[in-house]
Amino acid sequence: MAVVGVLALQGSYNEHMAALRRIGVRGVEVRKPEQLLGVDSLIIPGGESTTMAKLANYHNLFPALREFVGGGKPVWGTCAGLIFLANKAVGQKTGGQELVGGLDCTVHRNFFGSQLQSFETELSVPKLSEKEGGNDTCRGVFVRAPAILEAGPDVEILADCPVPADRPSITISFGEGTEEEVYSKDRVIVAVRQGNILATAFHPELTSDSRWHRFFLDMDKESQAKAFSALSLSSSSRDTEDLPKNKPLDLPIFE
């Protein structure tokens, strides 16, 4: 059985652990680099991204997390986890924060505003429905949530949502006294997949809908199948190379 690690530094890791138990999957809490060696995939939960980054630095986790992501094992970031996985984050606190990276996108750390502007909404998720069944919508719980402003060509968009009318103006400063509006569209990206990386700006673990967790587990199965296929091809190639040249194979004959 696949073992799913859940980064347990701060935030909603207990909720992810409970969601995994509901679908009969073993989850383990990860707080140290060496614990990543015993898991097949990893969930980086929502929480306070700056605090999580400081704790990750304290435990020297960033090098191990980057190696895990780069190694091709499935990784899912929710809310703050999305920020961690982005190649670029804007709207950060003074001094910024360290990122794991790997996801070709630009994330605004606090796109939807303050804690008081948290909200729930129905999201259209046809690809999730096609893969895991059920309705073609899911409940999106956004808690002081980020959003993806730009996504690279290899990033598959799984969900977007309308930009709330009461969202505060989102700007970035470029030098003293100069500001530029960076988002003016009426919809914004909130769920994506790029290879072994899944990212959602909302919190599926706070709902009873287990499809996102099953979707993530299917990514793990795909990863293992590809690894097995590559191993089989490699073994087959070596076996063929070991055969004497220009000699017919001595195969059994069944009558």
Outline of the structure:
With 255 residues, the chain is of the alpha/beta class.
Characterization of the model:
- It is a single chain.
- Strands 2-1-3-4-14-13-10 form a seven-stranded mixed sheet. The chain has a three-stranded mixed sheet with strand order 5-6-9.
- The chain has one domain (3-235): Rossmann fold (3-Layer(aba) Sandwich), CATH 3.40.50.880.
- The chain contains six helices and 14 strands.
- The two termini are 41 Å apart.
- The protein has helices at 13-22, 49-58, 62-70, 80-85, 126-132, 211-241; strands at residues 3-7, 26-30, 41-44, 75-78, 86-90, 103-108, 119-124, 137-142, 147-151, 156-162, 171-173, 179-181, 187-194, 197-200.
- With 255 residues, it is an alpha/beta fold.
Q: How would you summarize the topology of this molecule?
A:
Elements: E1 3-7, H1 13-22, E2 26-30, E3 41-44, H2 49-58, H3 62-70, E4 75-78, H4 80-85, E5 86-90, E6 103-108, E7 119-124, H5 126-132, E8 137-142, E9 147-151, E10 156-162, E11 171-173, E12 179-181, E13 187-194, E14 197-200, H6 211-241
Parallel strand pairs: 1-2, 1-3, 3-4, 4-14, 5-6
Antiparallel strand pairs: 6-9, 7-8, 10-13, 11-12, 13-14
Helix pairs in contact: 5-6
Active site: 79 (nucleophile), 203 (charge relay system), 205 (charge relay system)
Region (Disordered): 231-255
GO molecular function: glutaminase activity; lyase activity
Number of helices: 6
Low-confidence stretches: 247-255
Q: What Rg, in angstroms, do the CA atoms define?
A: 21 Å
Strand order of the largest sheet: 2-1-3-4-14-13-10
GO cellular component, one term: cytosol
Biased composition (Basic and acidic residues): 238-248
Region (Disordered): 231-255
Catalytic activity: L-glutamine + H2O = L-glutamate + NH4(+)
